[in-house]
Design a protein that fits this description.
The protein has 5 helices and 20 strands. By secondary structure, the protein is α+β, with helices and mostly antiparallel strands.
């Protein structure tokens, strides 16, 4: 009897404890859930935040070409050797800036030594001819020489002067040195963009290889490749934007100066020449460049700054701003991006404001 009473007491106690636990759980479930704290852009961020307006603008399509920077061939001067000899004392290196008339190198030359010797002979012959003329005139006055002798002596002087003038001109063309040296000087101011001259190198005057090549680089050319599918979009005289890996974010302004109306048989591309000023010499020969050619269509559409776009999960978004506590993530459909402007097909309306700086940080904060 006692054992039965004990079992009933234990069951009763278990039911009481279970009831208490159920009531406790029920009371916890019935408590209201705390509301999620509303997002607000901090004041420190607001001070530097850039907010732009959605605008209706003319739609621009653009294609990007690849090319390589080169010298303006109208201002490139090769410096060749005019004499045979051995190069001595090269004074410049590749990439150096030189001024017109600056000495680049000297050449020890037997030809120059011969020109110097010709000068001495021509000067001596002239002195002899002038002395003979004076003697002949004295003899003619004394009746010991004929008029023909006097005239012949005058002709000899004129011939000697002509020969001396010829020798001087040849010497001047070749630098004017009488010490057997040819001095190589820069014909224009500019940069040494090619150099083959080295000390003690033997050269010949009929060698077609230039010792130096100088370019002023005030303007540069870019040879760009145009694929067949884009040829119809290229027009001579059109303005283009040029960017390089060396200066990210910097846009150089140029113009299509020449369209080569033939396709390369191997690469199947057409070449175009872009000319652009280079006053600070930022663009160097052999740099790779991207050339953006824009084509304005007769169509209006919405556009936003390109920095306002966010790409996540295969979708583009912008952050529509109403106030610092009211920022909405809005999906948009992108038509085209041209430089700092992106054209949209849908997602926003004209006049709405979008965040165009620190957009990714705010986007991540809204999603956290």
């Amino acid at each position: 009897m006692k054992r039965k009473y004990s079992s009933v007491s234990s069951l009763f106690a278990f039911l009481i404890v279970g009831s208490v636990l159920l009531q406790s759980c029920g009371s916890e479930a019935n408590k209201p859930v705390a509301e999620k704290e509303k997002f607000a852009i901090p004041d420190t961020v607001m001070k530097t935040l850039r907010i732009d307006t959605v605008k209706t603008t003319q739609l621009i399509n653009a294609i990007t070409l690849t090319g390589k920077v080169g010298s303006d061939e109208d201002h490139v001067i090769p410096v060749n050797a005019l004499v045979t000899g051995n190069i001595q004392d090269v004074k410049v290196m590749l990439g150096d800036y030189v001024k017109a008339g600056q000495i680049l190198a000297t050449i020890r030359s037997a030809e120059m030594a011969g020109y110097g010797n010709d000068l001495i002979n021509a000067q001596s012959n002239l002195r002899v001819a002038e002395t003979n003329l004076q003697k002949t005139k004295d003899l003619y006055k004394s009746g010991l020489a004929s008029m023909t002798d006097s005239l012949n002596a005058e002709v000899s002087v004129q011939q000697a002067k002509s020969e001396l003038n010829r020798v001087n001109q040849v010497l001047k063309i070749n630098g004017g040195s009488t010490q057997g040296e040819f001095v190589v000087k820069a014909p224009i101011s500019g940069f040494i963009v090619q150099k083959s001259a080295i000390n003690n190198m033997a050269i010949r005057s009929d060698n077609s290889v230039s010792l130096f090549t100088i370019s002023d680089l005030k303007d540069v050319w870019i040879q760009a490749n145009v694929y067949e599918s884009n040829i119809s979009l290229i027009k001579q005289g059109e303005n283009v934007d040029v960017t390089t890996l060396a200066y990210p974010g910097k846009v150089f302004k140029g113009k299509i100066d020449k369209v080569m109306n033939v396709l390369d048989p191997s690469s199947k591309v057409m070449k175009v020449r872009v000319v652009l000023p280079n006053p600070d010499y930022l663009l160097k020969p052999e740099m790779y460049a991207s050339i953006t050619v824009s084509d304005k269509e007769n169509k209006q559409c919405l556009s936003v700054p390109s920095q306002a776009l966010i790409f996540d999960h295969s979708q583009y978004y912008v952050l529509v701003y109403t106030s610092k506590t009211d920022v909405k993530i809005t999906p948009v459909q992108v038509l085209n991006t041209v430089g700092e402007r992106t054209f949209l097909a849908s997602g926003v309306t004209d006049g709405q404001q979008v965040i165009s700086s620190q957009a990714i940080l705010i986007y991540n904060a809204l999603n956290s």
